[in-house]
C-alpha cells in the first residue's frame, strides 16, 4: 500500500545518501551465507586450474590447506568436496565411490584431523564422479535404476559419515533415497550427521564447467532428464521438497540458482525448512568470463548473490565463496 503521493512523497529521498541507502537495505550477505565447493585431484603438490572456471582450481590433498585456510579465514561455515577421478579408476558400477581411500575419503580425514570442527564438511552422495558412463547411478539397458542405486548410495553415505563427513548431500534426484539414507545412518549411530537434499535439481544446461572440473563431461552418455527435473516445472518442485522433508531432510537445495529464483521463492513460501541455492558452474563461468572480458563489472557478482538471498535462500553454494570478504567490502 502506498501512503501519500508526489510531490509530498519522494522515494528518491531515502536513496540520496549512502548512509540512508544502507539504513533501508532489505537484504545483505555475510560469510555465514556461503558454502564453498572444492575440487580434489590425485597426486602431490598441485593446484591445477580449470579451463572453463577462472580462478577455480583442483587441489591435491597435501595442498588443501591453501583453500581450507582461506575458507576459515573468510568464516565460511561449510565446504563441499568434489573429486576429479581418473578415467582408469571409473567403471560402470562406480565402485570407487565405496573405496575408503578414494579422494573424498582421504580429504575428509585430512581436513578433520587438521581442522577439527572449525569448518563443516559436506559431500555429494551420487555416483557420477566414479562411473564410466557419467550417470549418477547404475545403468540397466541405458536407464538409471532407482532402487538398486539406493543400496550403493547408502553404503557411500555410511562410508563418508564414518570418515567424518558432517553433511551428506544426495544429489542424484532418485526417489526414496533420503528416507533410506536417514534410516541407515541412524541405525549405525550417525544420528547427528545432517542430510541436505538436492531436492529440486533441474536437468540443466548450466552444469557444463562442473563436468569438466570432475572429468565427466566427455563420458556422459545422453542426458540426465529421466532423473533430474524438467525445467518447465514448478509444482513438481513442491512435491519433491514435501517428500524429502517427510523422509527426514534437514535442509533442501534448489539448483541451479539464478534462472530459478521463482522456484527458490516458491519453496521458501511453502515450507519452513532451510532452503539453499546453488549458483552452479555455468552461472559462475558466464559471470566470471564476462567480467574478465570487461563486458560487465565485478559488482555483478554481489548482485547475482544478493538476488538469491532476496528470493529466499538461507545460504548459497558458490564458487565465489572463498573471495567473499572482498566482495562484501
Ligand atoms: C552431480 C552434480 C552435478 C553438480 C553437482 N553435483 C552435475 C550434474 O548433475 O551433472 C553441478 C554443480 C555445478 O554445475 O556447479 N551429482
SSE diagram, text form:
Blueprint: H1 18-23, E1 34-40, E2 47-50, E3 53-59, H2 64-73, E4 78-83, H3 103-115, E5 120-125, E6 139-140, E7 143-144, H4 146-163, E8 167-170, H5 177-187, E9 194-201, H6 208-214, H7 235-247, E10 251-255, H8 261-270, E11 275-278, H9 281-292, H10 299-311, E12 315-317, H11 324-328
The structure holds ligand PBG.
Ligand PBG binds next to helix 6.
Short description:
The protein has 329 residues and is of the alpha/beta class. Helices cover 36% and strands 18% of the residues. It is built from eleven helices and twelve strands.
CATH superfamily: Aldolase class I
What small molecules accompany the polymer chains? Answer: ligand PBG
Cα distance, first to last residue? 34 Å
Count of the domains? 1
What is the CA-atom radius of gyration, in angstroms?
Answer: 20 Å
Strand percentage, roughly?
Answer: 15-25%
Individual helix count: 11
How much helix, percentage-wise, in residues? 25-40%
Shape designation: globular
Q: Total number of β-strand segments? A: 12
Q: Order of strands side by side in the largest beta sheet?
A: 1-4-5-8-9-10-11-12
Uncertain residue segments = none
CATH architecture: Alpha-Beta Barrel
Q: What number is the mean pLDDT?
A: 96
**Looking at the chains present, what oligomeric state does this protein adopt?**
single chain
Q: Which structural category fits the helices and strands?
A: alpha/beta
CATH class: Alpha Beta
- In CATH, the topology is named TIM Barrel
Q: Largest sheet at a glance?
A: 8 strands, parallel, barrel
Taken in chain order, the helices and strands follow as HEEEHEHEEEHEHEHHEHEHHEH
